[in-house]
Write a structure and sequence with these properties.
The complex is a heterodimer of chains A (393) and B (254). Chain A is built from 14 helices and 1 strand, in the order H-H-H-H-H-H-H-H-H-H-H-H-E-H-H. Chain A has 393 residues and is mostly helical. The two termini of chain A are 33 Å apart. Chain B folds into 2 domains: 40 residues, no CATH class; 198 residues, Alpha-Beta Plaits (2-Layer Sandwich), CATH 3.30.70.20. Chain B is built from 10 helices and 9 strands. Chain B is globular. The interface between A and B is large, with 50 and 58 residues.
Chain lengths: 393, 254
């Protein structure tokens, strides 16, 4: 397809996303699947996924810089680029889904510092700045002495950033599905997993398309790490649901997610747990994990499972009705308070906007790799670590 | 005949005149509290609202009639909320106040009540708003500044009462006193434009006009106000009192 063909392909998606935005903003949000019950829809699923994955994609760089693992160091630049691109893609989606995206300047100039959302705006902006400087320190050999401090700053910043993202939900006292301190660390571990899965796919694709050698040593190291992160996400999900299951007041929302008849139950068990958790673990730690195709498939599955998880958290959390009257049954209401749950069907424009964000991310990575020196010439085994043969599975 | 009536005061005897004067004087002496109270409610235009007042409501669900929608209709009329023709207009249209009917799961006792912005002392919508568009006036009324609302809808996620609506389309026939805007979030303003003129919210007025008298409106900080006296005398509850938000809207009978 070639470089320009790929860019044109991505531009088509970006234009479709912009067209969808124009359509939604011109008509108003009634043309979307969102309403006053489900105020955050598919664009938020895409946006939060991309933003969470962004900070996780920086992990590879951090392991090299902060924890001194030499094998990861050549990948630091690409890791930072992927992180920036994911964040940019996610933020564009978030911005374009606002009721008034034209008021971006208001969002940038008026801050309510008690709002975790306002803090996030600062955290996102800071992430761009710090990661940008980090890339500069990695590329400019004369700045080598600042390489590690910049890497540490970026590492700390990314942890704070994802704490902020998770707290968007953790701080919501009103809703049964949120209001939990575990949201912040769970989002951090989710970012490790989703970000690394995306990074593995980007690395495999770019090395294949640019005909650069990619050895098994680095790939096996990354896929084993991915397995650890996938398992850790499942652990946090388990802890979250076990805590809720213990408390009678949360039995309703747990039954809705875990045993209900809505799409959320299917997405949870089939999407998040089976495809996004168990399947990748089986692949990564069995003999299948030695195959590059299967490593790519498992990374893709982690992303699919991650999107399912985001959907269940964001849409499922809103779909379960607010519990305002404990012990009472809502007999009737003009605003569906009596509903067992609130339905939501994503509309095409919302999905196109989300895919537009993904296209922006990939566009930035492809373009960045082309014009700047983000990719190491070789990641063959002897190049990444002359002393280690690719023995680990 | 009319001449006689017009001239009647001149025909009042000396004793009657003195009695009337004394009554007027007594009235003038007692009245200031009453009169000043009335004046305080009708805040002069240009004077900032003060934390000396906290406007609130008490809803007596025992008096609230099932099937009666007077408060909702009055709110829609007062604030220019029109029903759209979308099939799911209930979920799309702004609803500043809604009627909810509840049944106690164990006893079967049922109640009907209006639900709207509870005008919390510690409103979660104000906490989460990134730009400060969600705000609480000094007198406790929670509002949205439509000029700086970016339409992020985080307040809708945060409100425990689902009291907020997002404007999903272009609006027409708006009322001058209740400006609204596509792409921004809005909710019950406690009819702030009427309160500032010393009047009651439209819903309360409608409920009274219908003879139900299930809604009291007044100053929670004025211990002589009817609402304060009612609250002191009889038990009342806050919806989701567990959240500690100290709502400005209280309920009796749930």
């Amino acid at each position: 397809m070639g470089f320009y063909g790929l860019l044109a392909f991505l531009c088509a998606f970006i234009l479709a996303g912009l067209g969808a935005t124009y359509y939604m903003e011109h008509n108003g949000h009634w043309v979307t699947g969102m309403n006053n019950q489900i105020a955050w829809g598919m664009p938020h699923v895409f946006a939060v996924f991309l933003i969470v994955a962004a900070s996780g994609a920086l992990n590879v760089a951090s392991i090299g810089t902060v924890f001194g693992k030499k094998m990861y160091q050549p990948l630091g630049r690409l890791s930072s680029l992927v992180a920036l691109a994911l964040l940019a893609g996610g933020l564009v989606v978030l911005l374009l889904d606002l009721g008034r995206p034209d008021r971006l300047i208001v969002a940038m100039t008026k801050y309510n510092f008690k709002s975790i959302f306002a803090w996030n705006i600062i955290l996102y902006t800071g992430f761009f700045a710090i990661t940008g400087i980090y890339i500069w320190m990695m590329m400019d050999r004369s700045m080598k002495k600042f390489y590690r401090p910049a890497g540490i700053a970026a590492f700390i910043w990314r942890l704070i950033l994802t704490t902020g993202t998770g707290s968007i939900f953790g701080f919501l006292v009103a809703r049964q599905g949120y209001d939990a301190a575990i949201m912040a660390p769970m989002f951090i571990i989710m970012s490790f997993s989703f970000g690394l899965a995306f990074f593995i796919l980007v690395t495999m694709a770019t090395y294949k398309w640019t005909d650069r050698p990619l050895g098994d040593a680095i790939l096996y190291r990354l896929k084993n790490l991915l397995g650890v992160f996938v398992a850790a996400v499942m652990y946090f999900v388990l802890a979250y649901h076990l805590t809720n299951l213990y408390a009678t007041e949360h039995h309703g929302v747990e039954a809705f997610i875990l045993t209900g008849d809505s799409i959320h139950t299917k997405l949870f068990w089939i999407g998040q747990i089976l495809l996004g958790g168990i399947a990748p673990l089986v692949i990564l730690y069995s003999n299948l994990g030695k195959s590059r195709t299967w490593i790519a498939i498992s990374s893709l599955l982690v992303i699919i499972g991650g999107m399912a998880q985001m959907y269940v958290i964001i849409i499922g959390g809103q779909a379960y009705p607010l519990q305002m009257f404990p012990g009472m049954e809502v007999v009737s209401s003009t605003f569906s308070d009596a509903a067992a749950y609130h339905a939501y069907t994503p509309s095409l424009p919302e999905i196109l906007l989300g895919l537009g964000g993904v296209a922006i991310t990939i566009f930035m990575i492809v373009f960045g790799c082309k014009v700047l020196n983000f990719l190491p010439a070789s990641l063959a085994d002897e190049a990444v670590d002359p002393h280690s043969a690719a023995t680990d599975k | 005949m009319s001449d006689l009536e017009t001239n009647a005061p001149e025909k009042i005897g000396r004793r009657k005149f003195l009695t009337a004067s004394a009554a007027t004087a007594a009235g003038a002496a007692i009245a200031p509290g009453v009169l000043l109270h009335t004046v305080a409610e009708a805040k002069p235009a240009g004077q900032a609202v003060s934390s000396k007042n906290r406007w609130g409501m008490l809803i007596d669900t025992n008096k609230c009639s099932k099937g009666c929608n007077a408060c909702v209709s009055a709110c829609n009329e007062e604030n220019g909320l029109e029903k759209s023709d979308h099939p799911n207009s209930n979920e799309i249209d702004a609803q500043w106040i809604r009627k909810v009917e509840l049944k106690d799961k164990s006893t079967g006792h049922s109640v009907s009540l209006p639900l709207m912005c509870q005008h919390c002392e510690h409103p979660p919508c104000v906490d989460v708003c990134p730009t400060g568009a969600s705000m609480k006036r000094e007198d406790g009324i929670v509002l949205v500044d439509k000029h700086i609302c970016i339409g992020c809808r985080y307040c809708m996620m945060a409100c425990p009462y689902k009291a907020r609506s997002f404007v999903h389309e272009e609006l027409f026939n708006q009322k001058d006193h209740a400006p609204r805007g596509k792409g921004t979030v809005e909710s019950c303003t406690m009819c702030v434009h009427r309160v500032d003129e010393g009047e009651s919210p439209a819903c309360v007025e409608a409920c009274n006009a219908d003879g139900h008298k299930a809604m009291y409106f007044g100053d929670l900080k004025d211990e002589n106000s009817e609402i304060s006296q009612q609250l002191r005398k009889y038990p009342s509850t806050q919806i989701r009192a567990d959240l500690g938000l100290n709502t400005g809207v209280r309920y009796r009978g749930i």
